[in-house]
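Hi there. Long-time user, first ticket. I'm pasting a complex I've been working with (about 650 residues overall). I'd like to know whether the download I got is complete or cut off, because the file seemed smaller than I expected. Thanks.
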Amino acid sequence: MNKFKLLMLSASLALAGFSTQLQAADDEIYIPVISKGFQHQFWQAVKAGAEKAATEYKVKITFEGPETEQQVDKQLDMLSAALAKKPAAIGFAALDSKAAIPLLKKAQTANIPIVGFDSGVDSDIPVTTAQTDSKAAAALAADKMAEKIGGEGEVAVIGHDQTSTTGVDRRDGFLNQLKEKHPKIKVVDVQYGGGDHLKSAEIAKTLLQAHPNLKGIFGTNEGSAIGAGKGAKEAKKSIVIIGFDSGKAQKDMINDGTIAGAITQNPVGIGFKTVEAAVKALKGEKLPKVIDTGFFYYDKTNMANPEIAAVLYD
Amino acid sequence: MSSTTTISSPSPRTRIAWSGQTKQKLLAFASLLALIVVFSVLKPDAFMTTDNFIGILQSTTVVGVLALASTFVIITAGIDLSVGVLMTFCAVMGGMAMVNGGLPMWLGIPITIGVGALCGAISGLIITKLRVPPFIATLGMMMLLKGLSLIITQAKPIYFSDVEGFENIALGSWMENLIPVLPLPNGVVIFILVAVLCYIILNKTVLGRYTFAIGSNEEAVRLSGVNVNRWKVWIYTLAGGICGVAGLLIASRLNSAQPALGQGYELDAIAAVVIGGTSLSGGVGTIVGTVIGAFIMSVLVNGLRIMSVAQEWQMVLTGLIIILAVYTDNLRRTKA
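Hi, the file is complete. Here it is re-exported in full:
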């Protein structure tokens, strides 16, 4: 029993230690940021951006997200605990907007502004949403594709899915831009590989088989692009591949020339703009409905630039 | 009764455990109170609020109900890795019945629970008839059910928006109408009711007695002429049915059946059971302990969040507390 008491005592002391750290900051503006994940490199980059803004605007933030993007209820628990802390504002990227509505309404009643980020919240409660303009980003991919294949010929798209917002917007952004600006380029097929490397590679090989004159493939996310690269390599064909996002395998393929280049979102910018928007909302500034957090095209030549390197992850 | 008394008394280990059980419950309860006191002192304005307490209760219900299901299985010295995914599968089947099939709620609810019981029975049969160890049998069920949930829903959530009153199963509050000062969400009331039911089954019925007996000495039970396999199938069926209740709770809370959710919840449930003093080697365990264990987990997670402890450290501290809890339990047991 004594041993137990001792252990409990040391546990409470440890907790007290944590809290003294926080006590000093109690009068600061506190903005919890609740994301869709926290251990992936992408979310860590969002976190880094949020922390940067916190230092700049002298506010205190915490960054939390469930372990997988399926744990909707755990994210709600996080939101509920964040509300209990009576924060000044909340940054939130909903895993399932509908499930979060009751809690968001509570925040609204308590006059806590919500800033959506990444895929945001499908509701009019958030004051603004900081996200990548996926259509514009994919349009840039289309321009780069046109440039590399000489403005004409056959291309194909390997999408990561046909239901999510990012999947649909990246595909449509690419297709529309080609139709409007590069009418001589013909899209022969759009296939979906679920972002799976292997599946996307099989699709790429089949596409090359079916369309011997194919000049290029746009892979709409990391797995799709890597799959396209693998497929082209296995089929021993040299085509122009434009990818999306980063990751070590994709970066390696860009370095060895399998993939021409890729579009990257700006996760650091997403985090930064989220906290910045929250601060602005608290000051009563008017905010646009959507804040574009920007995107970049990168290839072998500019991958090492500090501006680009900062938003790429392994 | 005459046949069971001879079964449950011989093992000296069980006798020790019985005598120490009240003490164990007190110890677990004291730890829970200690946690609440510590967090209340450190963050009185945020932790000690009605809203936050309801938040804690709400977050305990799903894992709590899964822990109740696991308690029965673990007392038999078995394990059920499929509880989290089975919960989701039940929610999905409930969605198929009520949303896609348009069945009314009074039919949809028993179907959801029935699906759980049926899957539990299948696990039980795989374990007893095919002689696959529980760990492997339920691991297989876990993968299989996860796949089926994704196939049935085409990997998209099923929304219950059109099923009138469904959200109230977990989120509404009957209590508020009865006792306005105690606005307990229905989900919490259901959790408590399931716990009471489990308590009665485990302590007052033949099924409960056999659960303990099989866990302490399966061979002795078999030799005394009891059909161990049949009782085991019943125990897994019961556990499955309880997972069905968890499926209703989570679907109602999220107002949707999320097909990819659930994996990993079995570990939270097992942690709650073990913190509550139930032994993984079987024969020992209580329902009250499991309920307290579930609350220790959720109070801890909520409290650390309220104190803005970084997420990585939340994991470290939760892990340490689990080890600490089982260590103190062992300490008490060797002394007793």
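A couple of notes from our side: Chain A is about 50% helix and 20% strand. The longest helix of chain A spans residues 2-23.
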